[in-house]
Every structure is written in C-alpha cells, then in structure tokens.
C-alpha cells in the first residue's frame, strides 16, 4: 500500500534511574506554553495534542483500542533465536510483509487510521517512537488505565519481524507462555497484559461480518470486568481446519477468545487471572509495568530520553465493582483456581440486554 512505500522512502523493564530522572527544574518550551525538564521533549507536546484531539477524539474508542493493539503487535516481534527488532516500528515500515502474517489480521485498518499521523510527525519521531507514544496516549483516554512512561530514541527499523512471533487467539496456554517467556515475561505478567488489554478492546476479525464486538461489558473502561465475563461458563467453537478461536460468551453481544478462555482455566494461569477480579489497583500496576516492558523490547533504555512528562494525566477509575450479568449467579462462574475461592459478586438488575458494538472510527 502507499503508506508502506512512503515510510520506506523516509528510511523510515522498568524505568531506569538516570541523570535525566534526577533533574527536576522545568524550563519553558519554545512554544511559550508548555514546560519540560528535558527540552528535547518539547517537540512532543503538539504531537500529543494532535493525537488526543484528532486521532482519539479524546475518548476511549476504536482508535484508542487500535493504537494499543499496535503497541503489542509491533513490540512482540523479537526473538532471541529468530531475530527481529522488537518495539522498532517495523510493523509500519515493513507493513507489506508483516501484514501478511495471520496474527496481524486487522492491523491494516489500524495502520490506515494511524498512518497519516505517523507520516505527519515523522520529522520528530521514528516509527517505533511514534507507535509507543500513541499507545501511551491511548491508555490515558480510558478511565482507570495507568499512565505509563515514554522513552524516546528508537532508531529506524532495518527489517521486518520474522513470522510466527505474535501469539494468536487459538494458541494453547503453553504456546503463549513460551512465546512471552522468550522475551522475559512471567506467566503472571502475561495474564496482566493480555487481560488488561482485552478490558478495553473488541474483535474486528473474529465474528464473521461484524466489527467492534467487545470482549467484556465495559470496553470503554479499564476495569476488571473482563476477568468475570471470561470466567462465566461458555461453549468452545471449532473453526475452519479444526482450529478453535472463539467461545460462545455467556453475555449477549460479547465474543470470547479461546486464549482468554484458557488463560482463565489453565492451572498455570487461572489463579493469577482470578486475582485481578475487583482489584483495580493491582491490575493497573501490573498492566502498566507489562506494557512498559513491551515498549522497551529490543531497545537500550540507557541510551533513550525519558519524555514521560509529555503523557497527560491518567483518568481516575470511576466505575464500580465487577458484577454478574442479569440472571446470572455465582453458580455460573466456572471456578478454576484451586487455592482460592472466586470473589463473591452481586448480580446486575435485569432484564439482560446485549452489549452494543464499539463504534468504529471514521
């Protein structure tokens, strides 16, 4: 596509205590409005405003969900044995290659939305930096989501990611944990990153002829409802070629990925999954640490500039506790963790109604 060719022409862990981190005096930026500890970060303020207002429309909607998905699909493209640049922007620069990977189905729509902004600001940010900045900004559009640090300084990608590095919805838990484990993630971190991201997400390519089908009842709120909705009893579907990839949700209007269904039930991950139910602070902290870790895959943080100060404040969590859908009781929870009882939940008043689809970005 044209987007990829334009990029080709352009050539296009946790926070580290550093000298930058010890500086606290803020100076006025050249725009005469913003201030920054590091003047190198001043050029990012207008980009942040542009993305908030013109890409995300200041809401936790389809564009914000897509930007977060792009963070993951770009960053996970690295392997100690197969290579890849990690969070380097290769999924944008070499999209003609990476979009042929089955796991990246639907990413073309995300790039179509994000691409014009990436090109517009390519004089300031490399593709890798842009994707991670957009992801950090997307999170603070969603009430309850954490504000994650942003480090600038990724070089231009030099090659496409090797195929087969992005986990898929029909992968086994063992396959998913092995893939994440190759790049340093524990099973608990996998549950936090996968479950947290699906709290504010929907499926565009799972249900035939439908887009924006939510994974939980509150797709515009970063909360723990996903960990309840997935734990309700459901029926596994078998797709083409015998591959499983979708589970009939107990809640009308939702779709459940096989990978989520299994993470909530496998002995390696089920107690971690259950532990997030109605523990919003724990989820926000674990998810924030996990996404930061993703954003630094393949990068040398010591050589990067900490521009976390440009990320807007997070929106406080204002929702209530996770609940059972109308007509459901605790007997509808498929208990999996053997060492702790599932938290007792109230049932929403009825009658039950279908969860609406997420409005698609125009």
UniProtKB/TrEMBL annotation:
Heme b binds at residue 198. Its cofactor is Ca(2+); heme b. InterPro entries: Ccp1-like, Haem_peroxidase, Haem_peroxidase_sf, Ligninase, Ligninase_C, Peroxidases_AS. Ca(2+) 2 binds at residues 199, 216, 218, 223. Disulfide bonds join 29-42, 41-307, 60-142, 271-337. Keywords: Calcium, Disulfide bond, Glycoprotein, Heme, Hydrogen peroxide, Iron, Metal-binding, Oxidoreductase, Peroxidase, Secreted, Signal. Pfam families: peroxidase (PF00141), Peroxidase_ext (PF11895). CDD domains: ligninase (cd00692). Binds 2 calcium ions per subunit. Binds 1 heme b (iron(II)-protoporphyrin IX) group per subunit. GO terms for molecular function: heme binding; metal ion binding; peroxidase activity. Gene3D superfamilies: 1.10.520.10, Peroxidase, domain 2. The record marks 69 as: Transition state stabilizer. Its EC number is 1.11.1.-. The active site is at 73 (proton acceptor). Ca(2+) 1 binds at residues 74, 86, 88, 90. Residues 1-21 form the signal peptide. Belongs to the peroxidase family. Ligninase subfamily. PANTHER family: CATALASE-PEROXIDASE, THYLAKOID LUMENAL 29 KDA PROTEIN, CHLOROPLASTIC-RELATED. This is Peroxidase.
